[in-house]
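Quick entry between incubations.
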Amino acid sequence: MALALFLRSSARLQALPNLSRCVQFAPSSTSRPFSHLVQQLNKNPISATKSKVNVIATRGMSADHSKLWPIEKAVSIALLGLVPASIITPNPILDNLLAVAVVAHFHWGLEACVIDYIRPIIFGPVIPKLALGLLYLVSAATLGGLLYYNHNCIGIGCTAF
Amino acid sequence: MALIFRLSGKRFGQQMLITDKSGLFNFVRPVTLKAKPALSEKEEGHDERNMRLKRPQSPHLTIYAPQLTSMLSITHRFTGMALSAYAIALGLGAVVLPESIPHYIEELECAEIGSSCISAIKFILAFPITYHFWNGIRHLLWDAGKFLTIREVYITGYVMLALAISSAIALSAM
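Done. Structure below.
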């Protein structure tokens, strides 16, 4: 293709010596753009792999998960301490923290379940989106309910005990 | 051949088309190649693609023998879902139910269903918590890159099961 391009431009010039020179130089000039690209890739291997990961992530159901993941794990670790602590020493602060952490934790867990099981290939394109919306509603309502319970009643810790 | 047409095309193509009697140049015209950036592939999920291609779903759970590893993993998810249901029931129940939650707990304790039955109910409530708690630690250790050989996965699996069942029994006896 590049060869044809050169030939065409040389036809415009209508000079045979020029044509022969272009043909001579053609191989070097065709290889230049590609080698240039390769060099750039080698220079930034991290960005190259990163963009590849992004492509894979957007092709799946969820978006880039690399920032949320550490937060999810931090909440999980926090729950390991919060659950026993709020049962052993029930108090309003721990109860409210537990309510928020539990709701966040089960929301992410159920979100994974919804995405895994309520899939477009089985339920069609609409129901999975509705299910995810419903999950957001339920999670928000539960958070509100648990906080209400902590303020107006005995609290989560006491109930569990 | 192509070279001749290309060479002639730019300069003489127009004149030749006018003077052409045989109609040959209506078919053989000078072609201009234009470089365009490649169109990015349409964003399509795994399921959407398979739906478009009308592919059937491959069998998954039914073709594997049950193993400790897979069963513990499924139970982890199942207990998580059960715990979510408990949390949702408590959260929504606190708002929706006419009486307060402790009232219902007292009613349940006063109802004459026997202490063993109460313990069974407590075990049903406690086991998902203990299981998800201990297996959650196991999962977090895997996330940290520890205990990932098959042997270690089985050992931690049995240890976790023992801890979960014993702590659930301890909680339900309280």
